[in-house]
Amino acid sequence: MKDMDTIVLEDIHNLTQLIVEDEEKAKERFLTRKAKHHESIIPLTSRSSQRADFAYKSLTR
């Protein structure tokens, strides 16, 4: 089994190759990943906000 350093270095190498070979494709891939990440965070933020509102309202009663 490969150690973690080797895996990370291979991933970095592959990403740099992608950027060198096709910058537009790399940019699209990055923006797609970023959008998916933000989509997954939004529901968590909304729930936290709802909990905070509920806690505030129950404290101010």
Concise account of the structure shown:
With 61 residues, this protein is mainly α.
What class, by secondary structure content? mainly alpha
The residue-averaged pLDDT reads: 84
Number of strands: 0
Tell me the fraction of residues in β-strands, as a range.
under 5%
The structural domain count equals 1
Radius of gyration, in angstroms, nearest whole number: 20 Å
User: Number of helix segments?
Assistant: 2
Span between termini: 59 Å
In the predicted model, the low-confidence regions spanning at least 5 consecutive residues are none
Binned, the helix content reads over 70%
Helix and strand run: HH
Largest sheet: none
Q: Specify the overall morphology.
A: elongated
Walkthrough of the structure:
With 61 residues, this protein is an all-alpha fold. The chain has one domain. The chain has two helices and no strands. The protein has helices spanning 4-21, 23-59. Helix 1 (4-21) packs across helix 2. The model has no long low-confidence stretch (mean pLDDT 84).
